[in-house]
User: What shape does this take?
Amino acid sequence: MNREDLLRVWKDFTKGNDFVLNPDSVFVGRVMDGLLMNEQRQGFRLCPCRISDGSRERNTELLCPCNFRAQEIWGKEGRCWCGLFVKRKR
Assistant: This one.
């Protein structure tokens, strides 16, 4: 997967949801680079801000996009763990 494809996946993921991609394009680019590096090294898109033990079975919760709505930080701060997705402003 390349940067353009990943960005399209993330944008499609936000359609019809109560969250959007972080408007800070520099930040999004850094997360993207880390995620693509993890995909190249480990074979799957692990969130670059979480520590992996290398086991796909144990790290499925770290795959991006993760189930961030289940995380406490979503309720408190309106963002996913790393801040890639943020609550849509009304």
About this structure: Residues 25-42 form the longest helix (18 residues). DSSP finds three helices and two strands in the chain. The chain has one domain: 3-87. The radius of gyration is 13 Å.
